[in-house]
C-alpha cells in the first residue's frame, strides 16, 4: 500500500512539505482514499507485481465507473432515521467523503423529493405562465430550448442539510450523513426575466408561485426582488445533458443561493400575484421553530457554510502529513476565505481555495497539516464576500435554539482520538 | 446554437430583453381561460381560489377513515406518517409537536394541500365536497371547529388558527415590508 501512488495525488495542489517523509505522506493520505478505492490495500509491492498491460474492454456508447470505485448516495429519512427502507426515504445524500473537486457527479447530486420521482415524457410536458400578466402563455420544453440561455455552476442545498446535529452529535456518522444535502452542478436554462417579459407581467405582481408536476404539486411563493429577477432561471440542462428525473426532468427552477425547496422540480406552472400564497411548504414545513416557540418564516437564503470532508467522520488517520480538504459555499455570493483549526478552534489558519471561486457555488479548500498523533479536533469556518462568517455552534444555537430543524450552518467539528479515529462531535 | 437561434438572439439583444414583446408569440402559445382553470388550483390565505361546495366534519370522519387513516392514524395521531392533530402548547418545549392544530397558521392552506397532494397515493381523487369535509374533520380533531362543524369558501378563510401569530418573517423577505419601499 505504501508504494503505490494514491489516486488523489492527481489533484494534489500543494507541494509536499520537505520535512515530511514519504511514509508519513502516504499514511496520512490513506484517510481520504480508503472509502473510495477498496482495492488499495491489495496494491502491488514492487513494480514487477503490477499487472501486465493488454487490450481492454470494447468501447461503449457510454462509460461506467471503474469496478474498483464504489460511489453511492444514501437514502435517509428525518434526523436519526438512517438505513431506512427506500420506500420510507425522503432524501438521498451525496457521498462528500469520497469526492474531490468542486462539481458533484450528476448521479450523486443529493435529492429531496416530496412524492417520489415522476416519469415525465418531455413531449407532453407544458409550462403554464399566468396570473397577473397580460399574455398568459403555454410553453413546451422545445420552446424553452430555443430561447436565449444561461449556464451557471451553482450549489443547491436542502434546508435540512446539517439537521443531524441540532440536538446531539451521533459519533458514528459520516459527512455524507451530516452534510450530504448540498451539491454543486452546472445548470443551463432560460432566464426567468426573459419568460416574465414574454408574458408581460403587471407591475404590481411582485410575488410568483412556482409549482411542480410531481404527485405533491410542491409549490412555493417567490418574492421577485431585483436579485432574484437577475439570477433565477428555468433549467433544462444539468452538467451538459438534460436534467435527470430525480432533479426535475424535463425542467426545473434554479434559484442560485436560495433554499433547495424553492428550486421547484418538474416545473409546470408559474403564477404571478401580489402576496405570498402561504403554501404548506412555506408555513408548516420550511419554517424554523425558535426557542421562544415562534417560527422564523421566509428565511429563503442559504447561509455561509463549510465542512471538512477529508478527513471526516468514520475515517481513520495515521500520524504524519494530512491534507485537510473540504467544501465551502454561501447563498450570499462568493466565498472569500476559509479558515481551518486543528486544535479545536483555538487557532486558525487560512486554507487554499481551488480556483475559480464562483458565486453561489461550492468551492474546494485544502490545507497542509502534520498530525502529531495526539487527540485533537479539526474544524473549518467560511467567510463570504459580504463578510458573513460561519458561526460556531455555541453562538448559533444561542440564536436559533435546537428546534429549528432547518438552516443549520454551524461549524462542523470532527474529533480525532489517539488511535486516529475521526468522529462527529458538537464542538 | 443554430444560425437561426443566433439571429433570434441578436434580435433580442438589439431590442433589449425588456422590450421583447414583438417576439412574444415566437415562443409558446396563448393559454386559454378554460385550460388555465384546469391547472389553477392554488388557494390563498384570503380564500381566493377556493371552489364552490362545502363539507361537514361528520362526513369528513368517514372520508378520513376511508382515505387517510391508514397513514395518519385513526384520529390523525399514531399513524405511520405525519401526525395531524394535537401538540398545542408544545412549540417552546424541547420536543415540539408540529401539527395542523399546533402549528399551521392558515386553514386555507389545509384545503389547498389536501387537494393538491393527498391522499398520497392518489392526489386529486377526492371530490370538492369530500375535500372540504376532510378539512373540516381535521380542524375538528384539533378543536378548531365543533365536531358537527361545516366549512366552505366563505368560512375557511375566516377561521383563526391557534398558531396564526406564531411566525416571524425574516426581515430580508418580510412580505409586509418587501416592495413597499417605492
Q: How would you summarize the topology of this molecule?
A:
The complex is a heterodimer of chains A (427) and B (182).
Chain A: H1 22-33, E1 74-76, E2 91-93, E3 111-112, E4 126-131, E5 137-140, H2 141-145, E6 150-157, H3 175-179, E7 182-191, H4 192-199, E8 207-212, E9 219-223, H5 226-231, E10 233-238, E11 241-242, E12 252-254, E13 267-273, H6 280-285, E14 288-289, E15 295-297, E16 305-310, E17 320-329, E18 335-341, E19 349-350, E20 352-353, E21 363-371, E22 376-384, H7 393-400, E23 413-416, E24 422-425
Parallel strand pairs in A: 4-13
Antiparallel strand pairs in A: 1-2, 2-3, 4-5, 6-7, 7-10, 8-9, 8-13, 10-11, 10-12, 14-15, 16-17, 17-21, 18-19, 18-22, 20-21, 22-23, 23-24
Chain B: H1 3-15, E1 29-30, H2 33-39, E2 54-56, H3 57-67, H4 69-72, H5 107-117, H6 128-141, E3 150-152, E4 167-169
Antiparallel strand pairs in B: 2-3
Helix pairs in contact in B: 3-6, 5-6
Q: What is the helix tally of chain B?
A: 6
**Kindly state the mean pLDDT of chain A as a whole number?**
91
* Rg of Cα set of chain B: 22 Å
What is the total domain count of chain A? 2
Terminal Cα separation of chain A, in Å? 34 Å
- Record field, number of beta strands of chain B: 4
Helices and strands of chain B: which structural class?
Answer: mainly alpha
CATH fold-level name of the largest domain in chain B: Cytochrome Bc1 Complex, Chain D, domain 2
The CATH architecture classification of the largest domain in chain A is Alpha-Beta Complex
CATH C-level name of the largest domain in chain B: Mainly Alpha
The percent of residues in helical segments of chain A reads 10-25%
Shape of chain B: globular
Instruction: State the end-to-end distance of chain B.
Output: 41 Å
Amino acid at each position: 500500500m505504501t508504494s503505490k501512488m494514491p489516486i488523489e495525488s492527481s489533484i494534489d495542489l500543494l507541494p509536499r512539505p520537505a520535512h515530511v517523509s514519504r511514509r508519513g505522506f502516504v499514511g496520512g493520505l490513506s484517510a481520504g482514499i480508503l472509502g473510495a478505492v477498496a482495492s488499495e490495500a491489495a496494491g502491488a509491492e514492487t513494480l514487477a507485481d503490477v499487472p501486465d498491460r493488454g487490450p481492454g474492454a470494447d468501447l461503449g456508447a457510454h462509460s461506467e465507473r471503474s469496478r474498483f470505485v464504489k460511489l453511492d448516495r444514501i437514502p435517509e429519512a428525518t434526523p436519526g432515521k438512517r438505513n431506512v427502507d427506500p420506500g420510507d426515504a425522503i432524501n438521498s445524500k451525496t457521498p462528500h467523503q469520497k469526492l474531490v473537486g468542486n462539481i458533484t457527479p450528476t448521479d450523486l447530486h443529493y435529492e429531496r423529493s416530496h412524492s417520489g420521482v415522476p416519469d415525465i415524457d418531455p413531449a407532453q410536458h407544458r409550462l403554464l405562465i399566468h396570473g397577473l400578466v397580460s399574455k398568459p402563455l403555454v410553453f413546451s420544453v422545445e420552446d424553452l430550448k430555443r430561447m436565449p440561455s444561461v449556464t451557471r455552476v451553482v450549489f443547491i442545498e436542502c434546508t435540512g442539510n446539517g439537521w443531524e446535529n441540532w440536538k446531539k452529535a451521533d459519533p458514528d456518522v459520516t459527512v455524507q450523513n451530516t452534510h450530504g444535502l448540498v451539491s454543486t452542478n452546472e445548470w443551463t436554462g432560460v432566464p426567468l426575466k426573459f419568460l416574465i417579459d414574454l408574458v408581460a407581467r403587471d407591475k404590481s405582481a411582485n410575488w410568483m408561485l412556482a409549482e411542480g408536476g410531481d404527485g405533491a404539486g410542491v409549490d412555493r411563493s417567490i418574492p421577485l426582488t431585483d436579485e432574484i429577477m437577475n439570477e433565477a432561471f428555468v433549467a433544462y440542462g444539468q452538467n451538459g445533458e438534460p436534467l435527470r428525473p430525480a432533479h426535475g426532468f424535463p425542467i426545473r427552477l434554479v434559484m442560485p443561493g436560495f433554499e433547495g425547496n424553492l428550486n421547484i422540480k418538474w416545473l409546470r406552472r408559474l403564477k404571478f400575484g401580489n402576496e405570498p400564497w402561504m403554501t404548506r411548504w412555506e408555513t408548516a414545513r420550511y419554517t424554523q421553530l425558535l426557542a421562544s416557540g415562534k417560527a422564523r418564516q421566509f428565511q429563503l437564503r442559504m447561509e455561509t457554510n463549510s465542512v471538512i470532508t477529508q478527513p471526516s467522520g468514520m475515517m481513520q488517520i495515521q500520524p504524519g502529513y494530512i491534507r485537510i480538504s473540504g467544501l465551502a459555499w454561501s447563498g450570499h455570493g462568493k466565498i472569500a476565505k476559509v479558515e481551518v483549526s486543528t486544535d479545536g478552534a483555538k487557532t486558525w489558519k487560512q486554507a487554499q481555495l481551488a480556483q475559480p471561486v464562483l458565486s453561489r457555488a461550492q468551492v474546494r479548500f485544502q490545507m497542509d497539516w502534520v498530525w502529531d498523533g495526539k487527540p485533537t479536533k479539526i474544524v473549518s469556518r467560511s467567510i463570504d464576500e459580504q463578510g458573513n462568517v460561519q458561526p460556531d455552534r455555541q453562538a448559533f444555537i444561542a440564536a436559533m435554539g435546537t428546534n429549528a430543524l432547518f438552516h443549520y450552518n454551524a461549524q462542523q467539528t470532527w474529533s480525532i482520538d489517539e488511535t486516529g479515529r475521526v468522529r462527529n462531535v458538537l464542538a | 446554437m443554430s444560425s437561426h437561434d443566433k439571429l433570434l438572439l441578436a434580435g433580442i439583444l438589439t431590442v433589449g430583453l425588456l422590450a421583447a414583446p414583438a417576439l412574444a408569440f415566437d415562443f409558446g402559445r396563448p393559454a386559454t381561460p378554460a385550460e388555465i382553470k384546469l391547472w389553477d388550483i392554488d388557494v390563498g390565505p384570503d380564500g381566493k381560489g377556493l371552489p364552490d361546495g362545502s363539507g361537514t366534519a361528520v362526513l369528513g370522519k368517514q372520508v378520513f377513515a376511508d382515505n387517510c387513516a391508514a397513514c395518519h392514524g385513526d384520529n390523525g395521531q399514531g399513524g405511520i406518517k405525519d401526525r395531524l392533530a394535537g401538540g398545542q402548547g408544545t412549540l417552546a418545549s424541547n420536543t415540539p409537536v408540529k401539527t395542523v392544530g399546533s402549528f399551521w397558521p392558515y386553514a386555507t392552506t389545509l384545503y389547498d394541500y389536501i387537494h393538491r397532494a393527498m391522499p398520497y397515493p392518489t392526489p386529486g381523487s377526492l371530490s370538492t365536497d369530500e375535500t372540504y369535509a376532510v378539512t373540516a374533520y381535521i380542524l375538528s380533531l384539533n378543536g378548531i371547529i365543533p365536531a358537527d362543524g361545516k366549512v366552505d369558501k366563505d368560512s375557511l378563510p375566516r377561521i383563526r388558527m391557534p398558531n396564526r401569530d406564531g411566525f416571524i418573517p425574516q426581515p430580508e423577505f418580510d412580505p409586509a415590508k418587501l416592495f413597499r419601499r417605492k
